Amino acid sequence: MNQFQQKLRSLLADRYGLDQLSVALLLLGCVVTFVLSLCGVRYYRLFGLLPMALALLRVLSKNIAKRQSENERFLRVWDPVKSWFGVKAQHAKDTDHRYYPCPTCKKTLRVPKNRGKIEITCPHCGTKFKKRT
Question: Model pTM greater than 0.70?
Answer without folding.
Answer: no
